[in-house]
Design goal:
10% strand; 22 helices; 5-stranded parallel sheet; Alpha-Beta Plaits; alpha/beta; 524 residues
């Protein structure tokens, strides 16, 4: 079916053309008519017109002006000019504007019929070309999506030998900087995956250039090249704004539980695998109820959490060693604790002092639990003393003195009431620290039940048996590291460990440094 528009300001011309077309192309054409250029434009806007017969001289917008406007609305329409004026300049201008043929009135019926057939052939040709172009476009899109998926897969599983140059050339990526994200669609049913994937593609590509991978389980990876010319901070702000908008659009279109993890900005394409893993790290820190997280924010938060956890753990160890009157460990831990606080709160001295005041109060409380009549006026002055100075050495002396005073008070009480069984057990452990001493072996040596021995250790030493022995071994190892004639493997054996790696792991957990790193600090 061909839609033909007849445009002429004379109704008789329109009627004549209509009669010819209906007699010769009755089942092939649908005819529209217009008595002016304005009406013709209105019809072209509302209908898919294939062929137009147009008079040049009409009231209002003339034929040539109408042709120009029609071609803007529908470049593929076939236009035939009908004019009573056989003037070259009109014909030339009409052809220049895109008219297919210029006919002068009166027109022979056979010429009209042949012209219409020629126009129909031209319409068919245009339709075929459009169909072929559409098919080619769809094929190219399909191929491109395969290449995109392959590129994302290569990014995720890349190594130093992966060559990305052909991908970057194919996608015409000339910027070095990029970031990646991982989008998770929880609870996605199998039969809805394709539609969801296409929505993700449409939304992501609508807001800028990106390369999108295929589904891996319920996740999709995406690569975003960015402008190298912008400052890092500006790019960070733009990325957060852009990804926040994309998350909102995806949530509205698909699910409010969608989660997105966004990596940091990277300039080395060989780091793509790590960059994607960083996006996963950010994703895993996102609430299961949905949201978006950025790797840079996650790292800062994780670092702060790790620091706070280490401060808390060290404070607890100080209290535990004070309770068992272990002066050597307490002195070492106090130095490490204060050094850690100065490292974390170097520019926040008030927070640092608050942490120390909190420690002092815990130390006094723990001491009075064991020595009920313990008093020390120096504790009452903790706030005023620490508030009055920023001198690190003075602060360290004050804290260390208070803690060691508590150790002395507890030691004097424990000396008078130490359980002889535990005293004998501790002597045996110290003499055999280089051996594998189990709780069962020690109980057999002492001639008591292992459960009872475990309870005695907890009551007397404030630690379970394993923790007590581990602490003794690591403390002895720390002292032995001061002897450069001993290699670390020998020290490992001398403190009762067979596996040097396991020993090094425990040592680093306890002191924050590996044995070799700790030895280096002693030699400085």
């Amino acid at each position: 079916m061909y839609n033909i528009l007849l445009t002429d300001d004379e109704q008789i011309v329109i009627d004549t053309l209509t009669l010819i077309l209906n007699r010769n192309f009755q089942d092939e054409v649908k005819i529209f008519t217009a008595l002016s250029g304005a009406k013709a434009l209105e019809t072209v806007r509302s209908e898919k017109i294939d062929i137009i017969f147009m008079d040049i001289h009409m009231p209002g917008i003339n034929g040539l002006e109408t042709i120009s406007l029609v071609k803007q609305l529908n470049p593929n329409v076939v236009i035939v000019i009908l004019s009573a004026y056989d003037q070259f300049q009109y014909a030339q201008e009409a052809i220049n504007l895109g008219a297919y043929k210029y006919l002068t009135k009166p027109v022979n019926r056979n010429l009209i019929i042949q012209t219409v057939r020629n126009c129909m052939n031209l319409v068919d040709t245009n339709r075929g070309a459009f169909s072929n172009n559409l098919e080619l476009h769809e094929k190219l899109n399909f191929v491109s999506s395969i290449v995109e998926s392959d590129f994302i897969y290569s990014c995720i599983f890349s190594n130093s030998a992966t060559d990305f140059s052909s991908y970057l050339d194919y996608f015409e990526i000339h910027n070095n900087s990029y970031f990646m994200c991982c989008i998770e669609l929880p609870g996605l049913e199998q039969d809805k995956r394709y539609d969801a994937y296409m929505k993700v593609r449409d939304i992501l590509t609508s807001k800028g250039r990106c390369i999108i991978g295929s589904f891996m389980t319920n996740r999709v990876g995406a690569f975003f090249p960015i402008n190298d010319d912008e400052s890092l901070n500006k790019n960070d702000d733009l990325i957060k704004e852009k990804m926040g908008l994309l998350h909102s659009l995806l949530s509205q279109s698909l699910s409010s539980k969608i989660r997105i993890g966004v990596s940091q900005i990277e300039s080395d394409i060989q780091q793509a695998s790590q960059v994607y893993n960083n996006a996963l790290t950010a994703l895993n820190s996102t609430s299961v109820s949905g949201g978006i997280s950025f790797y840079t924010d996650t790292i800062i938060q994780n670092h702060e959490n790790a620091q706070n956890k280490r401060i808390q753990e060290m404070s607890t160890r100080i209290i535990n060693r004070i309770k068992v009157a272990d002066a050597g460990s307490v002195s070492q831990l106090i130095n490490e604790y204060i050094a850690l606080l100065y490292d974390v709160y170097a520019n926040q001295i008030d927070i640092l002092k608050n942490k120390l005041i909190e420690l002092i109060f815990k130390v006094r409380m723990s001491t009075t639990e064991i020595v009920s009549d313990y008093t020390n006026e120096a504790f009452d002055k903790a706030f005023s003393i620490l508030s009055s100075t920023n001198d690190r050495e003075a602060i360290e002396r004050y804290i260390s003195s208070r803690c060691l005073e508590c150790v002395t008070a507890i030691a004097s009480v424990q000396a008078s009431k130490t359980n002889p069984i535990i005293q004998k057990a501790c002597e045996y452990i110290e003499e055999n620290i280089d051996k594998d001493i189990s709780l069962d072996q020690l109980a057999d040596y002492l001639g008591i039940n292992n459960f009872y021995l475990s309870k005695l250790f907890k009551d007397e030493k404030g630690d379970n048996y394993i923790s007590y022995v581990t602490e003794l071994r690591l403390e002895k190892a720390r002292k032995l590291l001061g002897d450069d004639s001993l290699i670390i493997k020998e020290i490992t054996s001398m403190v009762g460990y067979k596996d040097q790696n396991y020993f090094s792991k425990l040592f680093k957990q306890r002191y924050g440094l590996s044995p070799s790193e700790y030895r280096e600090t002693l030699n400085k």
